[in-house]
Amino acid sequence: MAAAQEYQKHVATLIKVDDALGLVFGWGLVCKVDGEDYYDVQGDNITEPGMVEATTDFMLNARVAKEMHKGDQIGAIVHSFPLTTEIAAAMDIVTKRTGWMVAMKPDSDETLEKFRNGSLTGFSIGGWHIEDEAA
């Protein structure tokens, strides 16, 4: 039997701040590193198929970014690319990491500055993680 658990605490790696466009690029979710399942700070592994399903729903229905999972919206996810092992192979992409690549557009210069100066080092995303209790 499956149980739904709120999944809101994953913080992923910030890769680049683009000052000209006011965007922050990085990993919203990581599924695998060097071909091995990646486990986040809660000990959860998001499978590649689960990531594609969840991020499709997120992009269609939410796209809201918050600061450390609290308060009001601080921006929106404006670019999204689910990079699975299969998609990488089909596109001739060689990568050590699979998961969800994103670009976030902060709502303010103050928030963008927090990414620039290292006060914010990753993305807070929300959604639901379904865990199989039988496993």
Structural description of this entry:
By secondary structure, the chain is of the alpha+beta class. It is 21% helix and 41% strand. It is built from three helices and eight strands, in the order ββββαββαβαβ. It has helices at 48-61, 85-90, 109-116; strands spanning 2-6, 14-18, 23-33, 36-37, 64-67, 70-83, 97-106, 128-132. The strands form two sheets. Strands 2, 3, 4, 5, 6 and 7 form a six-stranded antiparallel beta sheet that branches. It has a two-stranded antiparallel sheet with strand order 1-8. A hairpin with a 4-residue loop joins strand 2 (14-18) and strand 3. Residues 1-12 have low confidence and may be disordered.
Task: Please state the structural category.
Answer: alpha+beta
Distance between the termini: 9 Å
Query: What is the helical fraction, as a range of percent?
Result: 10-25%
| Stretches with pLDDT under 50, minimum 5 residues | 1-12
Report the order of strands and helices. Answer: EEEEHEEHEHE
What is the percentage of strand-forming residues? 35-45%
- Which of globular, elongated, flat, extended, rod-shaped describes the shape? globular
| Total of helices | 3
Total strands: 8
Radius of gyration: 15 Å
Largest sheet: 6 strands, antiparallel
Task: Briefly summarize what is shown.
The chain has 135 residues and is an alpha+beta fold.
Secondary structure: elements and pairs:
Elements: E1 2-6, E2 14-18, E3 23-33, E4 36-37, H1 48-61, E5 64-67, E6 70-83, H2 85-90, E7 97-106, H3 109-116, E8 128-132
Antiparallel strand pairs: 1-8, 2-3, 3-4, 3-7, 5-6, 6-7
